[in-house]
Amino acid sequence: MFEKSTWIRLPRNVVVGHGVRSSVVEVVDELHLQGRPLLVTSPTPRAVAAEPVAADFEAAGIDPAIVTIESATFESVETVIEAAEAEAASYLIGVGGGKAIDIAKMASHHLDMGFLSVPTAASHDGIVSNRGSVPDGDTRHSVAAEPPLAVVADTEVLAEAPWELTTAGCADIISNYTAVMDWRLAKRLKNVEFSEYGAALSEMTAEILVDNADHVRPGLEESAWVVTKALMSSGVAMSIAGSSRPASGAEHLFSHQLDRLAPEAALHGHQVGVGSIMTAYLHGGEHGIWRDIRDALDSIDAPTTAAELGLDDETVLEALTTCHEIRDRYTILGNGMDERAAREVATKTGVID
Ligand SMILES: [Zn+2]
User: Fold this and answer.
1) Angle at the Cα of 118 from the Cα atoms of 163 and 168, rounded to 5 degrees
2) I need a surface site. Which of 87, 128, 130, 202 has the fewest CB within 10 A?
3) Distance 160 CA to ligand 1 centre (A)
4) How close is the Cα of 89 to the center of ligand 1, in Å?
5) d(CA 54, CA 68)
6) How many CA atoms lie within 13 A of 330 on its CB side?
7) Tell me, what CATH number does 251's domain have?
8) Which residues are annotated as a binding site?
9) C-alpha 325 – ligand 1 centre gap (Å)
């Protein structure tokens, strides 16, 4: 008897392009959202994008509220929840880099409200996915939230973001290669749920990005276009899979562990990129695809070594040997690497000297 069922949750409108920031009110109208929006933003994006969007709402006769958060913490999520209640907001709009959007996503989940994503940096795939996580003391508070109702990604705004945020977004996409390798391995060894569509879309997204790496250059608005489309596609792969597996394997565990050991040392995408070089080596050995991953990262100016991440060798080794403990997600790291093995992979791949 056939008893499978699945829910695939996707954003209803995805608007990407030059000047589309001014389409937010139209998108809200198209979604038939009523009442008052609460714009969730952080200090820099507030001036660049949130205030202009708020002005558009006012011009349309809608009175928006704004809350500015400083950090990606659980306290910020609570601040937003309180603001939404105090301002009688009926939906949220995250305007900013990954931080403001993650917070808006998590708050909207707690409030059982819809939210829109208006990214001002193409820095990671959280701008479209349904996954949200923030550090919460010694652990991470993660939720499988809803994906945004809509994403409005203005390439004119995104191109103005610091260049390293765009290269971090690229590196996050390139890491899809190893995420899918880990997922296939977990399917073979642990029978975890696997989606051929989710895996294929995720790998294809990374391939298209690598093929278009020549168009990813500082000062080119097309870079924002290429990277944002890839982040959307990666987010759709996660929605199809109903899991972050298509875009998150051992390289993400490594990055989450670095976040604990050396908070704010480097950007998420840059950390997963370096992690991906090493886990590709673990999957394929000397002749595997680790060199292709390293070269792809290098070609878009993303870090490929511990030093370029601003980390010392010992921190990298500690993250590599302990990150399998973070969550119950089977990867190439299995039950953990011993220190000599970790040192060998990090040295052979040139991540440490
Ligand atoms: Zn990521």
Assistant:
1) 30
2) 87
3) 21
4) 30
5) 13
6) 12
7) 1.20.1090.10
8) 98-102, 120-123, 125, 129, 172, 252, 256, 268
9) 18
Two tokens, residue 225: 């276009």
Binding-site residues for NAD(+) sit at: 98-102, 120-123, 129
Q: Are both 120 and 211 inside the same structural domain? A: no
Span from the CA of 60 to the centroid of ligand 1 (angstroms)? 36
User: Which candidate, 116, 90, 94, places its Cα nearest to that of 34?
Assistant: 90
* Domain ranges, residue 23: 13-160
Distance 63 CA to ligand 1 centre (A): 35
pTM value? 0.93
| Ligand 1 mean position, distance from CA 141 (Å) | 16
The predicted model gives 155-180 an average pLDDT of: 96
Same-domain status, 258 and 328: yes
Q: What is the CATH number of the domain that holds 128?
A: 3.40.50.1970
* Same domain as 156, residue 40: yes
In a domain, 353, yes or no: no
| Residue 18: Cβ within 10 Å count | 13
> What does the pLDDT look like over 232-282, one tens digit per residue?
999 999 999 989 999 999 999 999 999 999 988 999 999 999 999 999 999
